[in-house]
Write a structure and sequence with these properties.
The protein is α+β, with helices and mostly antiparallel strands and about 575 residues long. It has 15 helices and 15 strands. One of its GO terms (molecular function) is cytoskeletal motor activity.
Length: about 575
């Protein structure tokens, strides 16, 4: 009776747990081993997947590192117990949370050594070193110092510089200028503008003697040319001129779109402008003369007057010879004196003119000639011609039914757009400017992406990860539903009356109590319920006496015990021993 009361007081979950434990003990050894192996494999797969997903992300510690330095760095990382990974191109990666700590600890050890040698290379010069080796060390020192200076720029992660210094010659005509190449490794997502690139170019040019700016080339890690090109392209313009043309064209486009977008809305206007810019440099010098003018309005530059006075016989003159020694003949023409002049009158020179004297007067006058000298230098970058094309989208207007439909613009509206664009771009028909305004319906730019396309893109981008997780999922499902589930199902399945274990013996719990015995359904059900007495009815329909019900249940249990003793005396003896050894 005490055992029945104890069985009734036991919780259901504990009874089920005891039943599962007893059933597991009754399983054959091969099934027990298979069940345990399946549980261990399932646990290993789950733990492995968790560890795989929790692997630390690695970040590049050093890149483009030499083999010798790479060996020293990895050895130091092993001593510091820091995991690392080696990649292509001399790349060493460590966990992201240990990058800066590893760099500081390696820098304290002077690693990597070959990454940035400077003028400290000249501190330990060997005695008797050759001039060539000394020159090479000096060149390496300059390259290292310049690389350190350039790496101080915020956008530059690392830099390498190669300087080519030609051999000096005693002949001036054979002198060659040095050249330099700069390789920049920029941080991810960083760029450099032309001002920064020009600063690097001038920095290198100023650090190397006789190195002109045009001989310095700067490229990034992708091989893109960052320095300005000195050579002309096929159009005859350098990069600066091409950039100026694009700037002029973009300026006109922005001006056109900014004046039309408030009217038609953003995205409904597209404009393109082509500018013909003249970059020719013209210097013109002209010298012009005006026609000769009358003496009165002309300016006198200089005047020369020469007077000579002749005195007849008083002064001998003429060509030496016989004719000169003969007396002069009589005058054939009368001597004409200036008006009002009498013999003995003073001449312009202040001398008195005799009666037989003759006056000779020469006057030379120089006038200034009109002269115009004009020196003209035409400006560069003058816009010679503009060509503009503007496309305007249809207006979205509601129709009679209230549906919004694209509606073309009227001729008056297009003419207004023409006038606005002409005023905005400074239209000049004399220089040959052209303008074309077109009204057309724009195609829908936003094409809806279907679910099938999204799934296809996701599968194509994550194929390797999906395959890995699919294999793990298949393994887990097989272990769970193919091995573990059938065994667990057998363990938690309710015991049928009269059912025996795998070894043919009746099932008992840990305390040796029967879980199922051979007999009628009523007795088996009563035993499976833990020996609980249920009140029934007599043959005449009257309620059965509780004492009679208990007695009947006692008889059933007694009969079950007898069957157990008959079928398995050894187990019965073991149960009795456990009862005797227990306190119950």
């Amino acid at each position: 009776m005490a055992d029945l009361a104890e069985q009734n007081a036991t919780p259901v979950w504990r009874t089920r747990l005891n039943d599962a434990s007893d059933r597991f003990k009754s399983l054959p050894n091969n099934k027990k081993i298979l069940f345990l192996v399946a549980l261990a494999a399932l646990f290993s797969v789950i733990v492995g997947a968790a560890v795989l997903n929790r692997q630390p992300s690695y970040k590049i510690l050093f890149s483009n590192i030499a083999d010798r330095d790479g060996g020293q760095v990895t050895a130091a990382l092993q001593q510091m117990n820091i995991p690392y990974q080696l990649g292509d191109g001399g790349t060493v990666s460590v966990p992201a949370d240990k990058v800066y700590d590893a760099r500081l600890r390696l820098a304290a050890q002077g690693l990597p050594k070959a990454g940035g040698v400077g003028f400290e290379l000249m501190d330990n010069q060997k005695f008797g070193i050759s001039q060539f080796a000394e020159q090479v060390n000096y060149q390496r020192a300059i390259e290292g110092e310049l690389a350190r200076t350039i790496e101080a720029i915020g956008s530059v992660e690392s830099a390498r510089i190669h300087i080519a210094i030609p051999k000096q010659s005693v002949f001036v005509r054979d002198q060659q200028q040095p050249t330099a190449s700069v390789m920049l490794n920029l941080f991810r997502g960083r760029t450099m503008d032309q001002g920064q690139v020009a600063g690097i170019v001038h920095l290198v040019s100023s650090a190397v003697p006789n190195l002109p700016v045009k001989n310095v080339t700067v490229v990034d890690q992708d091989g893109n040319m960052l320095s300005k090109l000195s050579d002309k392209d096929t159009a005859g313009m350098d990069q600066t001129q091409l950039g100026y043309v694009r700037q002029v064209e973009d300026g006109y486009v922005k001006r056109i779109e900014s004046i039309l977008e408030p009217i038609f809305g953003q995205g409904n206007i597209h404009a393109q402008v082509t500018a013909n810019v003249d970059f020719s440099e013209v210097e013109q010098t002209s010298e012009s003369y005006r026609p000769n003018s009358t003496p009165n309005p002309s300016a006198t530059r200089s005047q020369q007057i020469v007077e000579r006075l002749g005195s007849g016989a008083a002064n001998a003159g003429g060509v030496p010879g016989a004719l000169s020694n003969q007396p002069p003949s009589g005058a054939s023409a009368p001597i004409t004196l200036p008006p009002g002049a009498a013999p003995g009158t003073a001449t312009l020179s202040g001398q008195a003119m005799g009666q037989s004297g003759a006056l000779e007067r020469d006057i030379t006058t120089n006038y200034e000639v009109d002269k115009t000298i004009q020196h003209t230098k035409m400006p560069q970058g003058v816009v010679k011609r503009l060509s503009a094309a503007v496309v305007v989208n249809y207006r979205k207007m509601p129709d009679k039914n209230g549906e919004v439909k694209p509606t073309p613009l009227t001729a008056q509206e297009i003419q207004q757009i023409n006038n606005l664009v002409k005023e905005t771009m400074g239209y000049n028909s004399q220089r040959g400017d052209t303008l074309n305004v077109v009204n057309a319906a724009f195609a829908d730019a936003a094409v809806p992406v279907t679910m099938q396309e999204k799934v296809t893109d996701y599968l194509s981008n994550n194929a390797s990860s999906l395959i890995k997780y699919a294999l793990l999922t298949i393994a887990v499902l097989y272990l769970l539903f193919g091995v573990v589930r059938p065994i667990v199902k057998d363990l938690v399945k309710p015991v049928e009356p009269g059912k025996k274990g795998a070894d043919g013996r009746p099932l008992t719990d840990a305390g040796g109590r029967l879980l199922a015995v051979a007999g009628d359904d009523e007795g088996g059900a009563a035993a499976a319920a833990g020996g609980k007495a249920a009140a029934g009815t007599n043959a005449d329909g009257t309620p059965e006496n509780p004492k009679d019900a208990q007695m009947r249940q006692y008889n059933l249990n007694l009969e079950a015990a007898r069957e157990l003793v008959k079928s398995d005396p050894r187990m019965a003896a073991q149960i009795i021993k456990e009862w005797i050894s227990s306190d119950e």
